[in-house]
Amino acid sequence: MKKGVQLWCFIMLVLLVLSPTLNAQESVADDARLEAETTLDQKFSAGNYSRRGAEGCLRCHDDESDHPASGIFANVHGKIANIHGPMRDKQCEACHGPAGNHARSPRKGQLREPMVTFGPDSPVPAEKQNSVCLSCHQDTQRASWHSSEHAFEGLSCSSCHRVHKKQDPMLDAGQQIQTCTTCHSQTKADLHKRTSHPMLNGTMQCSDCHNPHQSVNEFSLNQPSVNAACYDCHAEKRGPFLWEHEPVSEDCTACHTPHGSVNPAMLKQRLPQLCQSCHQVPHANVEFAANDLRVRGGSCLNCHSQVHGSSHPRGQALRN
Ligand code: HEC
Ligand code: HEC
Ligand code: HEC
Ligand code: HEC
Ligand code: HEC
Ligand code: HEC
Ligand code: HEC
Ligand code: HEC
Ligand code: HEC
Ligand code: HEC
């Protein structure tokens, strides 16, 4: 047998032996999740909200940890003045569900009655977690959340947002970029390349181009097309030009990468290769002196400087 085949057989054998144990562990965890979920559903239909509201909860939850539950009072959700906010009505229970018997000490050998929790480790499925937030936030910004790539991938609102902190990480450029690039490592790598949009210093952030809540536009962009997104800030590239360069008006990413590149000006390829990738036989009909420095420089831009388009009467070859 070849070495590769032997190794393959060995791996399959190990998997075969291990799989019943792995499955058993998984199903225990699944059972616990299911039980918690069922209890929470029952609590919701019983609807036993506490009378003391936030005050009652803080008796046990306002601890000295570096991120105590009362952190919520430092942001919009904690403001009683906010008429649509949680503090106006069910308070903590607007998000964590009715208290029921949660505050009672559990009987010996039993667990405390659970509350709705958020984030990837919660037994509550992401979709249900999100329905809590969407009960107040189903507006135009999130109208197509359910068909977004992020919803499809099982992210919860809490994968990105923090409601018990003074500053929501998504509304701070530095924290936003850090959160997004924890999952999007390729984008992170791009940001550190030779040229990139100024995101590392916080001048720009992901949400300048993306709305991660929606699926209406491709790549969850803020605008209906890539070019429309770029024109938001680079309006001068829109023209109209007397002489257009076809790929420019079609798709900026024919030549540029949006997040960063090892080449100057975030170009996808070096010059002149970039131009030659589309223009196979340039200058079949133009002759240059053998010692023309512009040609020796190797860059097409030495002559075709108006690569985004020209409005000069003689700008047909994008030279002026
Ligand atoms: C008598 C004390 C007590 C009161 C009152 C209380 N809790 Fe708890 N709560 C606990 C304890 C202890 C835990 C730790 C988890 C456990 O034992 O299962 C907990 C866990 C939680 C959790 C899950 C935290 C985690 O890390 O998974 C949430 C959410 C929660 N409580 C919310 C509330 C809310 C909202 C209220 C008010 C309606 C409230 N609690 C009232 C004692 C209390
Ligand atoms: C009871 C209604 C309610 C629920 C439930 C609710 N929110 Fe809010 N939220 C509000 C209101 C009201 C505001 C303030 C909006 C405004 O002023 O335009 C707000 C603001 C926000 C903001 C902007 C924060 C800022 O500093 O400006 C974020 C982010 C947010 N909510 C996320 C969430 C998430 C995530 C959840 C679920 C865990 C959630 N909300 C649940 C009512 C709610
Ligand atoms: C992939 C990360 C991500 C997820 C998941 C996410 N958000 Fe956001 N959210 C953001 C970013 C980024 C912003 C800032 C957008 C801006 O500046 O316009 C934001 C802003 C907000 C705001 C305040 C501004 C506004 O658009 O009204 C609210 C409210 C909000 N999100 C609610 C939610 C809710 C509810 C969910 C879950 C259904 C959710 N978000 C899921 C990244 C996320
Ligand atoms: C707007 C919805 C919302 C409200 C209102 C709310 N919480 Fe939370 N709570 C969350 C989310 C989401 C998390 C997950 C961590 C985060 O986002 O900061 C959480 C986490 C927690 C935890 C788990 C420990 C932790 O910090 O991760 C406890 C305990 C808790 N909340 C208690 C409370 C108490 C007590 C109140 C009332 C004073 C309250 N919550 C009000 C949404 C809410
Ligand atoms: C200047 C606008 C702009 C900014 C800022 C921006 N993007 Fe993008 N992003 C785009 C465009 C345009 C595309 C689609 C075209 C492409 O990938 O070439 C895209 C595609 C993506 C994709 C999907 C395709 C892929 O490359 O995997 C992800 C994921 C992504 N961006 C994440 C991010 C993150 C995370 C940030 C913040 C660190 C960010 N983007 C900032 C414009 C931007
Ligand atoms: C918990 C992990 C996680 C976080 C945090 C996260 N994403 Fe994503 N995102 C994903 C996954 C998984 C996909 C789908 C696979 C892929 O394209 O990489 C995705 C897809 C995308 C896409 C492509 C969507 C499309 O419609 O084609 C964009 C753009 C994107 N994310 C931007 C962001 C931005 C901006 C943030 C921060 C505000 C962010 N993501 C935070 C996991 C995450
Ligand atoms: C939110 C505003 C904004 C949007 C949207 C935007 N840009 Fe930029 N762009 C900038 C800023 C700011 C700079 C840096 C300018 C400087 O350093 O002088 C820049 C620089 C550039 C550069 C030159 C980089 C260099 O290192 O020379 C290119 C190329 C570029 N952007 C292409 C694009 C493309 C393609 C898009 C669409 C996918 C786009 N931009 C969308 C703001 C934006
Ligand atoms: C045919 C390839 C090509 C396409 C398509 C293209 N560019 Fe460029 N772009 C270049 C080249 C080459 C440079 C470098 C110019 C230089 O070094 O003088 C550049 C430079 C830039 C710069 C930085 C210098 C400047 O001129 O401001 C920005 C910003 C820019 N492009 C934006 C865009 C936008 C926005 C689009 C889409 C509307 C686009 N580009 C489409 C080739 C292209
Ligand atoms: C993605 C493909 C693509 C890339 C990359 C590209 N071009 Fe073009 N270019 C075209 C197309 C398509 C046309 C219009 C059709 C034609 O005349 O060939 C055009 C037209 C031109 C013209 C005008 C020809 C005329 O007579 O109308 C010049 C000059 C030119 N390109 C130079 C460049 C230079 C310089 C670069 C590199 C910076 C470049 N092109 C990169 C596709 C591309
Ligand atoms: C020394 C100046 C110079 C350099 C360098 C140069 N060109 Fe040209 N290019 C011209 C002239 C002059 C024309 C003819 C203009 C006219 O007919 O009006 C032309 C025409 C073109 C055309 C139009 C189609 C054609 O063949 O007539 C394309 C496409 C083109 N060049 C691409 C390129 C590319 C790609 C490069 C880099 C590999 C490049 N050029 C480098 C001067 C230059």
From TrEMBL:
<feature type="domain" description="Cytochrome c-type protein NrfB-like">
    <location>
        <begin position="92"/>
        <end position="172"/>
    </location>
</feature>
<dbReference type="Pfam" id="PF22678">
    <property type="entry name" value="Cytochrom_c_NrfB-like"/>
</dbReference>
<dbReference type="InterPro" id="IPR020015">
    <property type="entry name" value="Decahaem_cyt-c_DmsE"/>
</dbReference>
<feature type="domain" description="Doubled CXXCH motif">
    <location>
        <begin position="245"/>
        <end position="280"/>
    </location>
</feature>
<feature type="signal peptide">
    <location>
        <begin position="1"/>
        <end position="24"/>
    </location>
</feature>
<feature type="domain" description="Doubled CXXCH motif">
    <location>
        <begin position="203"/>
        <end position="238"/>
    </location>
</feature>
<dbReference type="InterPro" id="IPR010177">
    <property type="entry name" value="Paired_CXXCH_1"/>
</dbReference>
<dbReference type="Pfam" id="PF09699">
    <property type="entry name" value="Paired_CXXCH_1"/>
</dbReference>
<dbReference type="InterPro" id="IPR051829">
    <property type="entry name" value="Multiheme_Cytochr_ET"/>
</dbReference>
<keyword id="KW-0732">Signal</keyword>
<protein>
    <submittedName>
        <fullName>DmsE family decaheme c-type cytochrome</fullName>
    </submittedName>
</protein>
<dbReference type="InterPro" id="IPR053875">
    <property type="entry name" value="Cytochrom_c_NrfB-like_dom"/>
</dbReference>
<dbReference type="GO" id="GO:0016491">
    <property type="term" value="F:oxidoreductase activity"/>
</dbReference>
